[in-house]
Amino acid sequence: MKKTISILLSACIALTSCESFLDREPVAEVGSGDYFKDETSLLTYTNGFLQKYTPGVEDLGYGDGYSDIVATKQSFTFLTNASWTPDLQSGWSIGDWTPIYNINYFLAHMREAQGLSEEVYAHYEGTARFWRFEKVKTFGAVPWYDAPIDPEDMAALYKPRDSREYVMDRVLEDLDFACEHCYDSGAWINSAQINRYIALAIKSRICLFEGTYRKYHGINLEGHDYTYYLEEAAKAAKTIIDEGPYKLYSTKTPDKDYMMLFAQENASTEEY
Prior knowledge:
It is a single chain. By secondary structure, the protein is mainly α. The chain is 55% helix and 0% strand. It is globular, with a radius of gyration of 25 Å. The model has no long low-confidence stretch (mean pLDDT 84).
């Protein structure tokens, strides 16, 4: 009898020990609830956006291949296929939505970092919201997500597309927030960080795209017409010209300046 009780006690202890071992926090990873502690954690997380979401070599080298301003060695299927279908268009798989989830996750949890000023919170919020703009260019109307969704939330996962007008209004809200709140001090200029002037430049570029797309495709949607976007593009660009730290490179020798802008050993930080 004593032997039986001893065996049962040993089994219980073993099971308890095993359970506590398996329930331990990962040693080599940071749990989601432990990461956001201070400004450094916010900076590190948002630096990940820069590493993952800035254009890669293919975007820079081949991005204009879908337009009529370059000649390519071989034509893209997009231009030559007479029946381009949704099945042929990439950019809608699970991995393509990961950036949106990561951004929304950051926005939902960033204030877990305690003791920071509203100015600091606003800068990092603007830095995250800066990145939520890419899908409209490829798909037009898309479902808009402004919060992380549960992978088992079927209603959210399969929600219908929101209108292009609605999504573009949200994109401009994001960019306007970034333009207003992202840092513009010297430490954030020419430092490979998102700052106010980068946000203004991207806003100008996106509004120029949207305005010209609507104008030359004859698209009239409820809300803003194409002139609104073109005016917003001009205003954002003018703000950079009037208030930004940049100016045209010049050594008072116009016959050589353009060449020297690109030929100098160290890139000029005045013009770009």
